[in-house]
Specification:
alpha/beta, Quinone Oxidoreductase, Chain A, domain 1, seven-stranded mixed sheet, six-stranded parallel sheet, binds zinc ion
Length: 342
């Protein structure tokens, strides 16, 4: 067996390349080795490649994929070679106090922010790589159910899980909620609109991209090119997926009393808030890294029942051989390759 492999490496703004590196091996009984078969960029990856984040290369990039299992450690039960699995972006043990409390993105058994595709909590490789070692595999990996095309759920380990996390709890409290989604990044706002419609919300979607507006309309959202006027009434839930401080400020003033605002774009600098308006109105504001592993069974069930259409967000489909040229040529490219375990 080859001892080296190719790893997709972010070098500098506008530049990624394949680099030869050591092929990962089982290091602990709870590990699995997986091979990504459908990978895509998180919206943050696109910002990294454009040089709009503080993260400097070189490092292995990529944290959204579906993979086939190549090998499992002796301590892994319920998974075997050949299984096709969703891989959460974060590394989490599944058993510590925080994992048990449903916040595996803050797992206590791993360095803070341990994840694939960014070197901020250790180096776990990236989910475009030929092979990836997944710690705590029995707790981390979730099998793709029968009838679900693995290519369609490549984003479930991060961006689609975000949509579920920021909506489900609030729509449970406010059935049929009026939801305002400010889109603008590659996919995440669209995923939110899709999941919100599936959860029975009245969805209003803002985006300057006519392509994304058309997609949102086709799944049942009311669409706008610019933020709707305050005359249109207030919203139960506001989702900031645009990474624009001015739009976020407006969104915070368009909520019903004690409404919910979730910010799912990533800001790297401080953002001013209309704090007195928020005080007078009552605003529940939340921002944070998604606890994907918790949500995977629920969003896979939605997909299996045909309630959501995440595949519409992909802007192109390529082979992994085309990644270097294609990764930033469109907003949400999907990369696929044949399985080797069948
Ligand atoms: Zn991400
Ligand atoms: Zn944990």
């Amino acid at each position: 067996m080859a001892t080296t492999m190719q790893q997709l490496t972010f070098i500098s703004p506008g530049k990624v390349e394949w680099r030869e590196t050591k092929r990962p091996a089982i290091a602990s009984a709870s590990d699995a080795i997986v091979r990504p078969i459908a990978s895509t960029t998180c919206d943050v990856d696109q910002a990294i490649i454009r040089g709009q984040t503080p993260f400097n290369g070189p490092f292995a990039i990529g944290h959204e994929c579906v993979a086939e299992i190549i090998e499992v450690g002796d301590g892994v039960s319920g998974l075997e070679r050949g299984d096709v699995v969703c891989v959460p972006w974060h590394i989490a043990c599944g058993t510590c106090k925080n994992c048990q409390a449903g916040i595996p993105a803050s797992c206590l058994a791993t360095p803070n922010a341990a994840m694939f595709g960014l070197p901020i909590g250790g180096d776990y490789g990236g989910l475009f790589d030929d092979y990836v070692r997944v710690p705590f595999a029995g707790e981390m990996l979730v099998k793709v159910p029968e009838g679900v095309n693995p290519h369609h759920v490549a984003s479930f380990g991060d961006n689609v899980a975000v949509a579920w996390e920021v909506l489900k709890q609030h729509i449970d409290r406010v059935p049929g909620a009026r939801v305002l989604v400010i889109g603008g990044s590659a996919s995440i706002g669209l995923f939110v609109a899709d999941v919100a419609v599936a959860l029975g919300a009245d969805v209003h979607y803002v985006d300057r991209s006519s392509r994304r507006r058309e997609l949102a309309k086709s799944i049942g959202a009311t669409v706008y090119k610019e933020l709707p006027s305050p005359k249109m009434g207030d919203f139960d839930i506001g989702i900031d997926a645009c990474v624009d401080p001015e739009s976020l400020r407006k969104l915070l003033t368009m909520l019903k009393p004690e409404g919910y605002c979730e910010s799912i774009g990533v800001y790297f600098e401080d953002v001013p808030f209309p704090i007195f308006d928020m005080y007078m109105r009552g605003v529940n504001f939340h921002i944070g890294r998604v606890n994907s592993r918790v949500h995977l069974p629920f969003i896979l069930d939605l997909k299996q029942r045909g309630c959501i259409h995440p595949e519409h967000a992909y802007t192109a489909t390529h082979s992994y051989d085309e990644i270097v040229e294609a990764i930033s040529a469109s907003a949400k490219p999907l990369f696929v390759r044949d399985r080797i375990t069948i």
